[in-house]
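The instructor's notes for this session suggest beginning with a concrete chain rather than abstract definitions. Hand out the sequence below and ask the class to guess, before any prediction is shown, which regions might be ordered.
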Amino acid sequence: MNIAKPESVAVFCLTPGGVRLARRLLSHVPLTCFTSDKLVEPGFLPFDGSFVNTVHKAFKQYSALVVIGAIGLTVRVIAPLVNDKMSDPAVVVIDERGQHAISLLSGHVGGANKLTRILAGILGADPVITTATDVNDMAALDTLATQLDAEMQDFRHAVKVVNQLLVSQQKVGLWWDAPFLAESERCDTQGFVPVKCLDALPQLDALVCVTLRDRLPLIADNLLPFPVYKLVPRRVVAGIGCRRATPLQTLVELLQQQLAENHFDFLALRAIGSVSIKKDEPALHQLARCWRVPFELFSVGELSRHEQRFPASDFVRQTVGVGSVSQPVAWLMSDGKLVGNTLRQRGVTITLGVSY
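After discussion, reveal the predicted structure:
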């Protein structure tokens, strides 16, 4: 998902009025502002050759693009670049007088709708948002996934079906597993039907379940007469220690085994981590790419401050400089919320933690 953050927003100014407007935005939020050579002033960068060339480069480098100018020009410039709403950056267009801020591309997953509201609020502009759920004052499944940093099997299809049901005023239930009840209060759930218990469901046309579990009996056993979608927040971290040149397949199999033994959905993984001496371990980098998660590294000093909490190995200490790797790594990544037992097989140790 490509969520727009203020520090990763590129703004393009084509006229003196656009520069003045960008300067107003810069006084409130951190932005990277581009303009033509003749309009460059302190705090602005010149176009890289041309406006079109700069936009094309920024489309791949920034999570959001804001064009202060005509919407038609913006559409023509970005048209060859548009690929997928799950990965395209947010694109917002603001007219030169600051009267309208228009969410043009990646409204939900990319965060363009949210960014439009923020920028419109700063400028006193009218936010123009056309996505069906927003127009009908409904929440959206992809927005909820963004707010929770959550994944889902066949996400594109689920978003299409659930959002269509919502705007058609069908009954879409929303159930929160116990650890996420507190998080439900900060999320936009307007339009969903609250479900407190899976054993006593109201009449529904679909159900969304927010959980880390790999199996919910009603879903797994296909007992319900309507579609059920599991939305899985990415909250599980894995501290990993391994011998040099451990094969990727070994790490994949053992991580899957450890997740399954603790009844976590594979989509729940948020990050893997290890000791800094493993920064060049190919299989760990490959594992992170396979799961599409960050690979975090911790120094021996950071791990040493917590190793007294865990059993130590003289072999590991001689090899990496600290008596335990996976447990203190998982401890640090999860703020001390470890789960289950540490896996020790085939020269690999894996400890899981959960960061709610």
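Then share the key points. The longest strand covers residues 338-345. Residues 1-6 have pLDDT under 50 and may be disordered.
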